[in-house]
P-type Cu(+) transporter (Halanaerobium kushneri), 288 residues
Amino acid sequence: AIPLVVAVSTTLSAKNGLLIRNRTAFENARKIDTVLFDKTGTLTEGEFGVEAVETFTDDYNKEEILQKAASLEQESEHPIANGIVKKAKTDEVELLKVDDFEIMKGKGVIGKINNTDMKAVSPGYLEENNIEIPNDALKEGPFTEVFLLENDKLVGMIRLADQIRESSYEVVKKLKDKGIKVKMLTGDNQKTAEYVSNELGLTDFFAEVLPDQKQQKVEELQAEGDFVAMTGDGVNDAPALAKADIGIAIGSGTDVAAETADIILVESDPLDVLKLIDFGSLTFKKML
Ligand code: ADP
Ligand code: MG
């Protein structure tokens, strides 16, 4: 039988936007001393708009940069890809056929257009391959830059902007007021991560974390003795959600994240992590 206090608080939680998939995790919320947040789609809206398109060669005008990038991104479901394709559609840019398309997890996409090898990639990918990033390409702010390569030569760039969720500011402050460490995990570049971290006043952040490494980060924090709640929305976050002491999925996120998590934030509001901690503690106290 389910103790009455648990039943009541589960109902209370449901009314407050918390879907409890694992009751033990819920009751353990009082032990949380670190909340780890994914950036894109969790602390930020995860909806990218195109801010600027730039060309670095006379062989391409800006529209052609957008055209090639959007053509490559058609097959990707990444929020970055959605932003680029949407811009091409708004501008009525015709999308081209892509052969041999592949996703380079956490780095970008690759494919052939008219038999030419094209890539749309992160700044981290350029660094890894010793391709120089043009001065001032990486702008300070909530921006993510995607670089277009033709036969591994840099030809252009698209700058996208995502917005920090309004309630992220409040949740960070209130968690810290409770003495809880608030850290961020992101595949995005160091500069963007640093901006978001400073904006929100995070305890710490980890940037350019590849999809396979997110779960490892959780393990590292646990090894330091922390009781870790991980909050995320993406397919990439699922292993980390599973590894965390408490896995929390954003409701608007991917099914994989929701199916892996202990708790789902139905309203997709990071602020509801606070309710989880309050209700979870309450339930535990009443059961004693
Ligand atoms: P996160 O889920 O934290 O946003 P990802 O691991 O999905 O990070 O992606 C990390 C980085 O890889 C992105 O910030 C971006 O620079 C690059 N990237 C991922 N997918 C794409 C894509 N479809 N097109 C271009 N760049 C991409
Ligand atoms: Mg995300």
